[in-house]
Design a protein that fits this description.
Blueprint lengths: L4 H16 L2 H23 L1 H4 L10 H13 L2 H11 L9 H22 L18 H28 L2 H9 L1 H21 L17 H28 L5 H28 L11 H20 L2 H4 L2 H31 L7 H24 L4 H7 L1
Length: 387
């Protein structure tokens, strides 16, 4: 009996360690290790060592997902700021801070991802002094830099509250109105301008996605995914941090999301019919099938969220928001990769190192959000509203 006791203690110790070190931490460590190794290869060997890009296909997943999707997925910040501060719908204020934090982290990580894709990342600051006002990319660069600064200022009161700094809080509140207006204007400009980047390739982008309306579609889809991401973030924050889900607020966002998705889809099909290319969506081609995928991922949640019993089910509402997010991602990847492949005469499959960098950046975003939510009063207004 004496010899059996250490084995029991060892089993309990191992079990205790597993409880303190859950599987998601192991996964996070693996993703970060793979991302760091890919970063080393990128620095030492350049783009050719870590990507399958070439002169015929110079933009891959780092632009299509990390930039185009990343900027759009961070749109919940400007959407909620506009709803609360400009349209004065104050009932959504309790979920404003988490949305701003999500947006700020999103833009910081987008800039980080851009450093990987630039041939000379050390020259990213050149846009500050080498102006080219005729370039869409110049406008996007300036808007992203300025809007990231605006988001930092909008989130700064949360940090100041943590340390009890009253004077900086009053200063930020004093400039809040012009700050909010500037943020909404900058977001509107660069969310639409990302679509303008593809207006210069009418012969290279597939007709299912090339349209003069692309900047408008990019802007509407950003608002749509901003609403979906707010629902996504609220659901996970409630589970992770033990916060009560703001049911009425999320339910209201779900109704607006249904309308936004419907408007986007109606405009998309009107545009296809107006350009006489709707028949391309019915053909048995890879482009048609992937176009159908993005439509289904947007149409299904739009139809479901119009039904009150779906919105009364937390899990169902969350899954609808998740489908809308994936529909948005499918659209941006179709524009940046699927549609361009058709005209480039080449095929592109990301190298594992490209995927590793992308997954590492996503994992880093989740980890930083968790740390910020644990140590800063991100949900202070949420708690006050609940009380």
């Amino acid at each position: 009996m004496t010899g059996a006791m250490p084995a029991v203690n060892t089993e309990r110790t191992a079990e205790s360690r597993m409880r303190r070190f859950p599987i998601w931490r192991i996964l996070f460590g693996l993703l970060m290790a793979a991302g760091l190794y890919a970063t080393y290869l990128r620095i030492v060997g350049g783009l050719g060592a870590v990507t399958n890009l070439n002169d015929s296909f110079p933009w891959g997943i780092w632009i299509g997902f990390d930039i185009l999707c990343g900027v759009g997925l961070a749109a919940g910040g400007f959407t909620l700021v506009a709803v609360v501060q400009i349209f004065n719908i104050q009932k959504y204020r309790p979920i404003l801070r988490p949305a701003i934090l999500t947006a700020f982290l999103g833009y910081v990580l987008v800039i980080l991802a851009l450093m990987f894709d630039l041939g000379r990342p050390d020259r990213i600051w050149h846009a500050l002094i080498m102006w080219n006002p005729h370039s869409v990319m110049f406008e996007v660069a300036w808007c992203v830099m300025l809007y990231t600064t605006v988001l930092a200022l909008e989130f700064s009161p949360v940090v100041f509250e943590k340390f009890g700094w009253e004077k900086p809080i009053r200063i930020v509140h004093a400039i809040s109105v012009p700050l909010i207006i500037l943020g909404v204007i900058l977001s509107t400009l660069h969310q639409s301008s990302l679509g303008s980047l593809y207006l210069i390739v009418p012969t290279k982008l597939h007709a299912l996605w090339y349209t003069p309306m692309l900047p408008i579609f990019f802007f509407i889809s950003a608002i749509t995914v901003g609403l979906a991401m707010t629902i996504f973030e609220s659901y996970h924050s409630a589970k992770a941090f033990g916060k009560a889900l703001e049911w009425d607020l999320v339910n209201g966002l779900a109704r607006i999301l249904a309308v936004a998705l419907s408007v986007l889809l109606v405009f998309r099909f009107m545009d296809l019919a107006g350009r006489g290319v709707l028949h391309l969506a019915m053909e048995n081609t890879l482009e048609a099938w992937l176009f159908g995928l993005e439509v289904v991922l947007m149409l299904l949640p739009a139809l479901l969220l119009y039904r009150s019993h779906v919105r009364r089910n937390v899990r169902a509402m969350y899954l609808c928001a998740l489908m809308a997010v994936f529909g948005f991602i499918a659209n941006r990847l179709n524009v940046s990769i699927t549609g361009i492949e058709a005209g480039s005469g080449t095929s592109y499959i990301p190298k594992w190192t490209e995927v590793a960098v992308t997954l590492a950046i996503i994992a880093l975003g989740f980890a930083i959000f968790r740390l910020a939510a644990q140590h800063l009063p991100v949900f202070a207004e949420h708690d006050a509203h609940g009380e």
